[in-house]
Amino acid sequence: MVLLDKFGRPFLKLRIVVNDVCNFSCIFCHFEGQPRVVGPKLNADDYGFLAETLAKIGVYDFKLTGGEPLLRADIVDIVRRMKRGSVKISMTTNGFRLAELARELASAGLDRANVSLHVADPDKFSKVTNTPRGWYKRVLEGIDVAHQAGIDIKINAVILRGINDDGSSLKSLVKLASSVGASLQLIELMPVGSGAKIFNELYSPAENMIAHLLNMGARPMYTRKDLHNRPVFYVGGVKVEIVKNWNNPYFCAGCTTMRLTSDGKLKPCLYREPAADLYRPIKERNAEALIREVARVVYLREPTFKLSYSSL
Prior knowledge:
Keywords: 4Fe-4S, GTP-binding, Iron, Iron-sulfur, Lyase, Metal-binding, Molybdenum cofactor biosynthesis, Nucleotide-binding, S-adenosyl-L-methionine. The protein is an alpha/beta fold. It is 35% helix and 19% strand.
């Protein structure tokens, strides 16, 4: 059984915020659309129950985010408890602790790590993330160890005007991704959280990066229908995904994802407020109540950006 919303979009993927703290302070951080200090957290057993229950309604793809998920002392146990059957577990991380935890995470069943590395330049990296310059090298070490441990690596880069949206910066990122066997994901800046404060100054449309890719000889491969209708290119031995999320109805039309805050609230979209509190049914191990609440929120889902109310 798979749940469909009123627009025919299936619910297939869940982004899970596992904590509300981070040791980086990126200039655009949206913190997954939730406050930085919230209520009590779910534990590893809770997440295991959640994954087991949602798999019954066709959700097999879970992304662990934060905050910085690797700052949780039990993050390896969370991955281990959630990983079962056909379930896929990925994680978005700043990579700071990846070198020390990658082998344990791989053993626990982590399939992929999306590492935030927005520019292949230590000085620019330091300014974007508000971290010491030397942390850039530490992130690279983490990527290398994770790759050797068998974890698929995808480098996340938020597109920022005047910082990394030029052809030279893109070539450097592609070269870096190629050297570590990673794919690359170019993400438009979102006017959420800290991103709202710098949006007018630093927003650069994804079309600019597509133009650079084509100038580099990139070959269009396909469109990811299962995830926001993302266009995918291939250049220099690297797969490059374009995440054009802002004011893009085609992106919303292909959305198969919802979000869970670190205190168990279900959000139908980054731009929406929580629509259900799943904390109690998860803690009570009430699968029926959990599925009922999830089904209710799926029914309420609507695209944030629409072509028209009659065409989606």
